[in-house]
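Milestone M4 deliverable, item 7.
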Amino acid sequence: MRDEIRRLKEELNLTIIFVTHDQDEALSISDRVLVLDGGLVQQLDDPSTVYQQPANEFVANFVGYANIIEGTVEAGVFKAIEEEGFQLNVNGLDAKSKLVIRPEHFEVTEDGPIHGRITKTVYHGSYTRCSVQIGQLELLVDARKENIKRDMDIRLSHPTHLHFID
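Output delivered:
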């Protein structure tokens, strides 16, 4: 049905307002996505921007899954408030902010700078969604490697482009 709605919209050059709570539907059909909360506009943008660069914490959590880590950026280093050992090199202004990282943006590597322990796994076919404990932080990570198991120690790398919200 998604493909048919998209085909009709493009073929007939129609403007269609499609109301849904299904994020996959909204992202796959739309040219623009409007996210509302309590009747207030939270973000209006193209699907990729809404997903990759959510305007705020509500949008980040409403559209997909997101790890939101509160911290500070000082001298190009993000430091998590909840976990002293969680630090990432970033390019950005010094500020208190929240870092948004989607589970699929982490990569399980042999020498990643982030060390954690898997506390839970859910197999999804092309990936395994893991809860990874890093000190006091618990992050969602979509691992694409085989043989990912609970109670396993892993190392993670993160994307070079990081997104912050206030």
